Amino acid sequence: MFRRLDTRTFVAGQIGAGDIAEARALGVTMIVNNRPDGEEPGQPTSTEIAGAARAAGLDYRHIPVAGGFSLDQVEAMAAAMEEAEGKVLAFCRSGTRSTCLWALARKTRGGDGAEIMQEAAEAGYDLSPLQDFLMR
What is the pLDDT of residues 54-80, one digit of tens each? Predict the structure, then answer.
């Protein structure tokens, strides 16, 4: 269910409270939710996931993304990744938005675009729509 992007970052599609223990067992210390509440009927709310994460001793950030990425969202993701004491699990509906946000955050912090694209591809995500930005 969780896909490793790099040594500190996993992504996933929608998680539930029951997935928190598995994340913690992998060394995850922070959960980042990239889904807006109410995006899909029946999805757990940010408050529900936050409560489960905090009950397990994990940090939690809600950085909802819909209809493109803003600089504020990219900066918030970069800050979350920097502040995490261990590994990060970011999730959205399928993992794609979270992967894109991870890639943009890494690039703004000096990451190598080719390496970022390769890591995402190895996890099963195509970042070609971001190629122009990532390869600058």
Answer: 999 999 999 999 989 999 999 999 999
Q: Whole-model pTM?
A: 0.97
* Other beta carbons less than 10 A from residue 126's beta carbon: 13
Domain containing residue 95: CATH number: 3.90.190.10
Q: Which domain holds residue 42?
A: 3-134
Determine the pLDDT at residue 26.
97
Tokens found for residue 40 = 């899909």
| Spatial contact of 52 and 87, defined as CB atoms under 8 Å apart | no
Instruction: 20-27: list long-range contacts, CB under 8 Å, 24+ apart.
Output: 20/52, 20/53, 20/55, 20/56, 20/58, 21/56, 23/58, 23/89, 24/56, 24/57, 24/58, 26/2, 26/87, 26/89, 27/86, 27/87
